[in-house]
Amino acid sequence: MEGSSVSVTSNNQRPRSRLAEARKGAAHYLSQPLARLLARTGVTPNALTWLGLLLSCGAAVLIALKQPFAAGFVVLVAGLFDMLDGALARYTGQSTRFGAILDSTLDRLGESAVLLGILILFVRNYAPTGIIIVGFTLPGALMVSYLRARTEAAGLAGEAGFFTRTERVIILSLGLLLSSINYALMAALGIIAFFSYLTVVQRLLNARQQTKGN
Length: 214
Prior knowledge:
The chain is mainly α. Helix content is 75%, strand content 0%. The protein has a single domain (18-210), classed as Four Helix Bundle (Hemerythrin (Met), subunit A).
């Protein structure tokens, strides 16, 4: 497990953990070529953000209609748009505070919609265990993102933890794509729930360490 940041220099210059830096570097490497292409089309970052939400809602509908395999691909594409909206904003100089707020808000709505679609699927399939797992997964996933936002609003480093939205999207997509295998989707949700709550604890401990003496 990577170490977390433990010191704060200023509100505008928060240190990142090595894992956060690795994630940022990988995302930059993957997204920059696509961001350059998108910049030529005139599409705006906010348009990509809204499109990502629509794709997530479409995936939720597919899941509720018992088409989880197709939904797995849609969730992956929605995750790609989630990565590209920020990359495009930075590349074109259109980054704004409101854009960041909108992105974070629609990401949470999209993730909730997909999990709601899975809940409907389990209800239709009479799978009480799956229903319970979704009930544990949703608040855990949302708390990971909330803690980062709340911690950074306090001027602290908030990216501690090794299980972020990127990892959740990948695991959830795999669970949907492998849903024809018994309990694959439940197992994916269980992994997401467990590591989400573990990341919540990591971020709380990291915030506590940064605020010692304050």
